[in-house]
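Researcher: Next entry in the queue.
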Amino acid sequence: RSARNAIAVVATGLVLSSLTGCSVAAPKASPTATQEQTKAAPPVVTEGQLRLIVQRSAASINASDVKRDPKKPSERLAGPALAARVAHYKLQEATKFAPKLPRIATEKITFALPASETTWPRLVMAVTSSGAKDELPQMLVLEQAGPRDQFKVWYDINMLPGVQTPEVASPLVGAIPVRADSLFLKISPKALPTAFGNLIDDGLSSLGAPMFNVSNDEFYKQVSQSQITQAEKLKTAKMVFAHALAENNAISLSTTDAGALVAVYMTDTTTIKPKDRSSAVAVSGLEKILLGADGSTTGVRTIYGDMLLFYVPPVTSKGEIQLLGVTQGLISIKKL
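Model: Structure for this entry, 336 residues:
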């Protein structure tokens, strides 16, 4: 996994790096609107307004990425997207070898889904790309807290290649927002990190495994296998993994089949402690740079943040939950 390592295990590159250069299917928009949606509320933005919002947000964030000041990040960031950028700026301050953040492209907006809403906060999802074959499209999930506030990017998620996405309403109609504790989906949005984390830890023996479609989920496969490999290599230390909801603002918009597109933030915490005083935990790569040391005789705790995009079918459906996109980053590491 991204720079994650165990004792004497060299860090690897970002898990998504091997996925670039593949085609990705953008969510499909339904050309018609239901009578219920039409009566409910208009979309919160027009397509023209959305393009302007995306362009201004991208310009601000890309400029912030050039300055790399963790104390003054872009004013167009919030929540997990803000936390991820601030953490990476700190890493870039510590070493010139930290990778550059990919810029937010605005050459193409291949998908637009505003919420159908009359109150605040107001939500919108948009998939943008540069059009280059070797770059993954990004799902930007934006929220406007109040009528006098700017839309801010809460989630910046790389779409995974080859995934099949559900149909959504036309941007001329908009989608109904879904509550984070909704009981009308196969699983509530805020419960997704725990269930997906259990799947990563326990594989297909996890109680929630039947709900997920992991046949083409390379992120799940690589992270799960990485944990197994690390645990097997540890002889003189104990390793504990924990996955949790890290942001209550799980943003969800309905699909035409009564399911939802769900953006949620999960933290992956790895705790490694030596079994006795004769052993030590060694770290390398970006973890070593951020820790400022080769390791620790008392152990280390590392936290990665995952911005995840899922399709979650309705509770009455026989369909499965599908991971559509993920952006992962090193958030922190400290000695125990």
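Model: The mean pLDDT is 88.
Researcher: Noted, moving on.
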